[in-house]
Specification:
heterodimer; A: 114 residues; mainly beta; 6-stranded mixed beta sheet; globular; B: 113 residues; 7-stranded mixed beta sheet; 4-stranded antiparallel beta sheet
Chain lengths: 114, 113
Amino acid sequence: AQTVTQSQPEMSVQEAETVTLSCTYDTSESDYYLFWYKQPPSRQMILVIRQEAYKQQNATENRFSVNFQKAAKSFSLKISDSQLGDAAMYFCAYRSPYGQNFVFGPGTRLSVLP
Amino acid sequence: KAGVTQTPRYLIKTRGQQVTLSCSPISGHRSVSWYQQTPGQGLQFLFEYFSETQRNKGNFPGRFSGRQFSNSRSEMNVSTLELGDSALYLCASSLEGLIYEQYFGPGTRLTVT
Protein backbone atom coordinates (compact mmCIF):
# COMPACT_ATOMS: atom_id res chain seq x y z
CA ALA A 1 0.00 0.00 0.00
CA GLN A 2 1.14 3.48 -0.74
CA THR A 3 2.00 5.89 2.06
CA VAL A 4 2.50 9.63 2.07
CA THR A 5 4.66 11.41 4.63
CA GLN A 6 4.81 15.08 5.46
CA SER A 7 7.58 15.52 8.00
CA GLN A 8 6.77 19.12 8.94
CA PRO A 9 3.65 19.29 11.11
CA GLU A 10 3.92 23.09 11.26
CA MET A 11 5.71 25.75 9.29
CA SER A 12 5.69 29.52 9.33
CA VAL A 13 6.75 32.11 6.79
CA GLN A 14 6.93 35.87 6.67
CA GLU A 15 4.58 37.59 4.29
CA ALA A 16 6.19 38.03 0.83
CA GLU A 17 8.80 35.38 1.57
CA THR A 18 9.14 31.91 0.07
CA VAL A 19 8.44 28.64 1.86
CA THR A 20 8.81 25.00 0.85
CA LEU A 21 6.65 22.21 2.22
CA SER A 22 8.00 18.68 2.05
CA CYS A 23 6.28 15.50 0.96
CA THR A 24 7.63 12.02 0.40
CA TYR A 25 5.76 8.94 -0.65
CA ASP A 26 6.33 5.26 -0.88
CA THR A 27 5.20 3.30 -3.90
CA SER A 28 6.30 0.50 -6.16
CA GLU A 29 4.32 1.87 -9.08
CA SER A 30 5.98 3.72 -11.91
CA ASP A 31 3.06 5.84 -12.97
CA TYR A 32 0.86 7.80 -10.62
CA TYR A 33 -0.52 11.23 -9.85
CA LEU A 34 0.40 13.64 -7.09
CA PHE A 35 -1.59 16.54 -5.72
CA TRP A 36 -1.28 19.31 -3.17
CA TYR A 37 -4.47 20.39 -1.46
CA LYS A 38 -5.04 23.37 0.79
CA GLN A 39 -7.51 23.44 3.66
CA PRO A 40 -8.02 26.97 5.04
CA PRO A 41 -9.55 27.47 8.48
CA SER A 42 -13.01 27.51 6.84
CA ARG A 43 -12.35 23.78 6.15
CA GLN A 44 -13.12 23.51 2.45
CA MET A 45 -10.28 21.69 0.75
CA ILE A 46 -9.16 23.07 -2.58
CA LEU A 47 -6.64 21.83 -5.11
CA VAL A 48 -3.42 23.80 -5.30
CA ILE A 49 -1.45 21.91 -7.91
CA ARG A 50 -1.11 18.49 -9.54
CA GLN A 51 1.68 16.51 -11.15
CA GLU A 52 1.63 13.46 -13.39
CA ALA A 53 4.55 11.19 -12.59
CA TYR A 54 5.36 10.55 -16.24
CA LYS A 55 6.01 14.26 -16.78
CA GLN A 56 9.53 15.35 -15.95
CA GLN A 57 8.65 19.02 -15.98
CA ASN A 58 7.66 20.40 -12.61
CA ALA A 59 4.14 21.78 -12.41
CA THR A 60 3.60 25.48 -11.75
CA GLU A 61 0.47 27.43 -10.89
CA ASN A 62 1.12 31.14 -10.39
CA ARG A 63 2.97 31.47 -7.06
CA PHE A 64 2.88 27.72 -6.43
CA SER A 65 5.37 25.29 -7.90
CA VAL A 66 6.55 21.80 -7.14
CA ASN A 67 9.91 20.09 -7.06
CA PHE A 68 9.16 16.56 -8.21
CA GLN A 69 12.02 14.13 -7.70
CA LYS A 70 10.73 10.77 -8.91
CA ALA A 71 13.78 8.72 -7.97
CA ALA A 72 13.76 10.14 -4.47
CA LYS A 73 9.96 9.87 -4.28
CA SER A 74 9.77 13.47 -3.21
CA PHE A 75 7.14 16.05 -4.10
CA SER A 76 7.70 19.38 -2.35
CA LEU A 77 5.57 22.48 -2.72
CA LYS A 78 7.11 25.93 -3.02
CA ILE A 79 5.02 28.98 -2.28
CA SER A 80 6.55 32.22 -3.48
CA ASP A 81 5.60 35.71 -2.33
CA SER A 82 3.56 34.26 0.54
CA GLN A 83 0.29 35.99 1.33
CA LEU A 84 -1.84 36.01 4.46
CA GLY A 85 -4.45 34.02 2.58
CA ASP A 86 -1.98 31.17 2.13
CA ALA A 87 -2.32 30.28 5.80
CA ALA A 88 -3.89 26.83 5.88
CA MET A 89 -3.30 23.11 6.28
CA TYR A 90 -1.58 21.69 3.24
CA PHE A 91 -2.03 18.07 2.29
CA CYS A 92 0.02 16.07 -0.14
CA ALA A 93 -1.92 13.31 -1.90
CA TYR A 94 -1.06 10.30 -4.03
CA ARG A 95 -3.29 8.61 -6.54
CA SER A 96 -2.46 5.26 -8.07
CA PRO A 97 -3.39 4.53 -11.68
CA TYR A 98 -4.86 1.26 -10.47
CA GLY A 99 -7.17 2.58 -7.80
CA GLN A 100 -9.54 5.45 -7.59
CA ASN A 101 -8.96 6.62 -4.06
CA PHE A 102 -6.47 9.19 -2.88
CA VAL A 103 -3.92 8.61 -0.13
CA PHE A 104 -3.31 11.76 1.88
CA GLY A 105 -0.38 12.77 4.03
CA PRO A 106 -0.91 14.00 7.61
CA GLY A 107 -0.71 17.64 6.57
CA THR A 108 1.45 20.66 7.31
CA ARG A 109 -0.04 23.68 9.04
CA LEU A 110 1.34 26.83 7.45
CA SER A 111 1.20 30.14 9.26
CA VAL A 112 1.93 33.39 7.43
CA LEU A 113 3.30 36.15 9.62
CA PRO A 114 2.59 39.78 8.74
CA LYS B 1 -21.56 25.70 -11.26
CA ALA B 2 -22.52 24.87 -7.69
CA GLY B 3 -19.91 23.16 -5.56
CA VAL B 4 -20.16 20.03 -3.48
CA THR B 5 -22.73 20.43 -0.75
CA GLN B 6 -23.01 18.45 2.45
CA THR B 7 -25.81 18.35 4.95
CA PRO B 8 -26.04 18.80 7.81
CA ARG B 9 -22.99 20.90 8.60
CA TYR B 10 -23.03 20.06 12.29
CA LEU B 11 -24.47 17.14 14.16
CA ILE B 12 -24.47 16.00 17.77
CA LYS B 13 -25.41 12.41 18.52
CA THR B 14 -25.31 10.08 21.46
CA ARG B 15 -23.33 6.87 21.67
CA GLY B 16 -25.26 3.97 20.21
CA GLN B 17 -27.35 6.08 17.87
CA GLN B 18 -27.04 6.04 14.13
CA VAL B 19 -26.51 8.93 11.73
CA THR B 20 -26.92 9.62 8.03
CA LEU B 21 -24.91 12.25 6.23
CA SER B 22 -25.71 13.55 2.77
CA CYS B 23 -23.55 14.75 -0.09
CA SER B 24 -24.54 16.34 -3.39
CA PRO B 25 -21.70 16.33 -5.92
CA ILE B 26 -20.95 18.88 -8.56
CA SER B 27 -23.24 18.49 -11.54
CA GLY B 28 -21.76 15.99 -13.97
CA HIS B 29 -19.53 14.31 -11.40
CA ARG B 30 -20.35 10.65 -10.99
CA SER B 31 -17.61 9.71 -8.55
CA VAL B 32 -18.19 10.49 -4.88
CA SER B 33 -15.71 9.69 -2.12
CA TRP B 34 -16.04 9.98 1.62
CA TYR B 35 -13.26 10.72 4.10
CA GLN B 36 -13.04 10.89 7.86
CA GLN B 37 -10.79 13.65 9.19
CA THR B 38 -9.55 13.66 12.78
CA PRO B 39 -6.62 15.45 14.41
CA GLY B 40 -4.97 12.16 15.31
CA GLN B 41 -5.51 10.12 12.16
CA GLY B 42 -5.67 12.83 9.53
CA LEU B 43 -7.69 12.17 6.39
CA GLN B 44 -8.75 8.58 6.05
CA PHE B 45 -10.55 7.20 3.04
CA LEU B 46 -13.90 5.59 3.78
CA PHE B 47 -15.31 4.60 0.42
CA GLU B 48 -15.94 5.70 -3.12
CA TYR B 49 -19.05 5.36 -5.21
CA PHE B 50 -19.38 5.54 -8.94
CA SER B 51 -22.61 5.08 -10.86
CA GLU B 52 -24.41 3.80 -7.76
CA THR B 53 -21.76 1.13 -7.08
CA GLN B 54 -19.18 1.07 -4.35
CA ARG B 55 -15.91 0.97 -6.23
CA ASN B 56 -13.39 1.25 -3.39
CA LYS B 57 -13.54 0.82 0.33
CA GLY B 58 -11.17 1.89 3.07
CA ASN B 59 -10.33 0.08 6.25
CA PHE B 60 -13.33 0.94 8.38
CA PRO B 61 -15.70 -1.36 10.26
CA GLY B 62 -19.00 -2.44 8.79
CA ARG B 63 -20.82 0.16 10.90
CA PHE B 64 -19.83 2.61 8.18
CA SER B 65 -21.81 2.23 5.02
CA GLY B 66 -22.89 4.32 2.11
CA ARG B 67 -24.89 4.44 -1.03
CA GLN B 68 -25.25 6.49 -4.15
CA PHE B 69 -28.40 7.39 -5.98
CA SER B 70 -29.04 7.65 -9.69
CA ASN B 71 -28.54 11.42 -9.57
CA SER B 72 -25.08 10.81 -8.04
CA ARG B 73 -26.08 12.13 -4.65
CA SER B 74 -24.57 10.03 -1.91
CA GLU B 75 -25.36 9.22 1.68
CA MET B 76 -23.13 7.85 4.37
CA ASN B 77 -24.50 6.02 7.38
CA VAL B 78 -22.82 5.19 10.65
CA SER B 79 -24.64 2.82 12.98
CA THR B 80 -24.05 2.24 16.67
CA LEU B 81 -22.03 5.40 17.08
CA GLU B 82 -18.93 5.37 19.24
CA LEU B 83 -17.11 8.30 20.83
CA GLY B 84 -14.25 7.72 18.41
CA ASP B 85 -16.52 8.43 15.47
CA SER B 86 -16.43 12.12 16.34
CA ALA B 87 -14.80 13.70 13.32
CA LEU B 88 -15.19 15.91 10.30
CA TYR B 89 -16.65 13.88 7.46
CA LEU B 90 -15.70 15.14 4.05
CA CYS B 91 -17.29 14.29 0.77
CA ALA B 92 -15.49 14.81 -2.53
CA SER B 93 -16.65 14.45 -6.10
CA SER B 94 -14.73 14.20 -9.32
CA LEU B 95 -15.00 13.54 -12.99
CA GLU B 96 -14.09 10.09 -14.18
CA GLY B 97 -10.40 9.87 -14.94
CA LEU B 98 -7.32 9.54 -12.79
CA ILE B 99 -5.93 12.95 -13.61
CA TYR B 100 -8.94 14.72 -12.29
CA GLU B 101 -8.78 16.21 -8.84
CA GLN B 102 -11.41 15.77 -6.22
CA TYR B 103 -13.59 18.70 -5.27
CA PHE B 104 -14.39 18.72 -1.60
CA GLY B 105 -17.47 19.79 0.27
CA PRO B 106 -17.34 21.84 3.49
CA GLY B 107 -17.77 18.74 5.62
CA THR B 108 -20.11 17.60 8.35
CA ARG B 109 -18.82 17.97 11.89
CA LEU B 110 -20.11 15.00 13.87
CA THR B 111 -19.81 15.01 17.63
CA VAL B 112 -20.68 11.86 19.54
CA THR B 113 -21.34 12.28 23.27
